[in-house]
TrEMBL record:
Annotated GO MF terms: RNA binding
GO biological process annotation, one example: maintenance of CRISPR repeat elements
Keywords: Antiviral defense
Entries under InterPro entries matching the protein: CRISPR-assoc_prot_Cas5, CRISPR-assoc_prot_Cas5_N, CRISPR-assoc_prot_CasD
UniProt-recorded name of the protein: Type I-E CRISPR-associated protein Cas5/CasD
CDD domains cross-referenced by the UniProt entry: Cas5_I-E
Source lineage: Bacteria, Pseudomonadati, Pseudomonadota, Gammaproteobacteria, Cellvibrionales
Pfam families the UniProt entry points to: Cas_Cas5d
Superkingdom per UniProt: Bacteria
Record flagged with keyword Signal: no
Length: 211
């Protein structure tokens, strides 16, 4: 299938769902964050949730962590924040937000040829500002890397030459374990489903790269 390869570098904060004062980050970019990144490039607003959900359902994703980065924590005080029960609190609260510096990620986005071509065009000239998880984490390089044609997004991402672990929607070459992650966008805004993520160790594959 046609697969879009993207790359990012720099500060990132791909968080997990939480209403706690400690805003933790995931060890690899979450599926919902990647879909959000693509949605921004396409020009989908948060109010257009049906479009975002359709985008999520139309693609398979794999991500490779080539540089984990250094974790830092940013201290804030906030007001009018949402509590774990969903209520807005007017008191002042301390929060701690985690970030990763000097990360390097590769992404494989797989889908039908026409839609992947549309995504490639969007990431080359995004309609909204694209960032890595939080607005304070802007891109430091162009997103677009290349387009490849492989049976599996894991094979596609290995073509980029990275050596880090790969986290994939579907089982691929070199699968060594599975984990469960609650990061799948559903039809209901801000409600997420759990998926099985296949952890793969990269192996060499041979295909043509299309730039």
């Amino acid at each position: 299938m046609t697969t879009l390869i993207l790359k990012t570098q720099g500060m990132a904060a791909y968080g997990v769902q939480t209403f706690d004062v400690a805003r933790k980050i995931n060890t690899f970019p979450t599926r919902s964050a990647i879909v959000g990144l693509l949605s921004a490039a396409l020009g989908y607003s948060r109010k257009e949730h049906s479009h975002i959900a359709s985008l999520s359902a139309a693609i398979k994703i794999a991500v490779q962590v080539n540089a984990q980065g250094q974790k830092i924590t940013d201290y804030h005080t906030v007001q009018n924040f949402r509590s774990p029960t969903g209520k807005i609190q007017t008191t002042t609260k301390q929060t701690y937000r985690e970030y990763l510096c000097d990360t390097e990620y590769s992404f494989a986005i797989q889908g039908n040829t026409e839609f992947i071509s549309q995504l490639a065009k969007a990431v080359k000239s995004p309609k909204f500002t694209v960032f890595q998880g939080r607005k304070s984490c802007p891109l430091t390089r162009p997103l677009f890397e290349c387009i490849v044609d492989t049976d599996n997004p894991v094979d596609a991402i290995i073509l980029t030459g990275g050596k880090g672990q790969i986290f994939s929607d579907i089982e691929g070459p070199g699968a060594i374990s599975t984990i469960q992650v609650r990061d799948v966008i559903t039809a209901t805004p801000r409600k997420y489903a759990t998926r099985i993520v296949y952890v793969c160790a990269p192996k060499e594959v041979h295909h043509e790269l299309t730039h």
